[in-house]
C-alpha cells in the first residue's frame, strides 16, 4: 500500500483508512490540474526565494507542467491506495525527479494546498458557468427577436391576465440571466485572493513570499490572514453555489412554462423531437423528459447548495476534517449547473411556436385593463373606469381596446450580453497567459 503523506510508521486500521479517504480519489480528479498549477507556483516561489536550489525548482515546475497537461487530458489517475490528489501528485514527482520530488512540500500544508487548488478551480469553473449562462441568455434573446410580436397570453395565478408576446416572455429570461452575468465580476473579485502560504492555518514556519505566489497564479492580492484561509473553507463554495442556484431559479420558471405551453391543452409551442422521448407502452406519446429533468435539476442544485451550507456550518474556527466532505457536492453542483445551462441553450432554437394557436388564445377579456386605463386617461377616476369595464364584461357589451405595445429594448440587452461575453473572454485569456508564464520558467 502506498504510504500516506502523513505516515509515521504507526498502526493503521484499513477500514478506518477507507472511511477517512472517502470519495477523494474520484473527486480530486477534478482538482488535479489546479493542484498542479498551485504546486508549480509554490515550487517556483521556493526557488526564487532560495529555499530550493533553482535547478531543482525549475525541474519541479517542468514536471508539474507535464502533469497538469496529463490531468487536463484525463490521463493522470489517483490510485485506490492513494488518499487524494495531493498524494498522487507528490508520488508522480518522486517517480520523475527522485529526491527532488520529495522537496515540494517545504513550508506547505495539505490545508493551504487544497484551498489553493479549489480557489483556482473556482476561477476556471466560474468562467465556464458564465459562458454557459451566456449561451442560454443569448438563446432566449434569439427567440425574443424571432417571435418579438407573436401574441402570447400573460398569466397570473395560472389564469389568463393580459396580452403579452413571446418576445416579452423570452426577453424576461434573457434579462434574468444577464443580471446573473453582471454579478460575475463581483463574484470573481471575491475569489481573487490567494490562500497559498497559509500552511496549516497559522502561517508558514519560514519566511515564504506569499505575494510572489499570488502573482504567479494571477491573483491580485493575498488572502492575508492564514486563519481566515481555513475559516473560509465552504464560504467561497457557498458564494459560487448561490450564484448558480439563483440563475437556475430563473431557468426553472422558463422550463415550467414550456412544459405547460407545450401540452395539448395549451398547444402554444412544440418541442423539438430530439428533446422528447417516447412511452414504452403508448405508441403515440412524446414526453418532455428533457424539460422535466432540467426542471428537477434546478431543485437538485438547491439541494446540493443546502448540503454545502450544512457541512460548512456549525464548526469552530480553523481547519477540520469535515471540510473534506465539501468537495464532492461542490464539484457535482458546478458540473450539473453547467450542463443545465448548456442543455437549455441547445433546446431553445428548436422550439416551434404555433402563432395561430397563440393569437386565438388572446380572448377579449384580456384587453379589460387596457380599456379601463384609457377611460381613466380621458378623465374618469380609475376605480370608476374599473367598475364600468367589469359591468361591460358581465353584460356582454365590452369592446376590447389594444394596449400600447411594450418596448422590449432587445438591442440594449444584446449589447449588455456582448459586454459580458467580452469580459469572460478577457478573463480566460488572462488565465491562459498566467499559466503559460508560470510554467515557462520550468522549461528554461
Automatic annotation (TrEMBL):
Residues 31-303 form the Fumarate lyase N-terminal domain. InterPro entries: Argininosuccinate_lyase, Fumarase/histidase_N, Fumarate_lyase_CS, Fumarate_lyase_fam, Fumarate_lyase_N, L-Aspartase-like. Its EC number is 4.3.2.1. Pathway: Amino-acid biosynthesis; L-arginine biosynthesis; L-arginine from L-ornithine and carbamoyl phosphate: step 3/3. Gene3D superfamilies: Fumarase/aspartase (C-terminal domain), Fumarase/aspartase (Central domain), Fumarase/aspartase (N-terminal domain). SUPFAM superfamilies: L-aspartase-like. GO terms for cellular component: cytosol. It comes from the Bacteria. Keywords: Amino-acid biosynthesis, Arginine biosynthesis, Lyase. GO terms for molecular function: argininosuccinate lyase activity. It catalyses: 2-(N(omega)-L-arginino)succinate = fumarate + L-arginine. One of its GO terms (biological process) is L-arginine biosynthetic process via ornithine. This is argininosuccinate lyase.
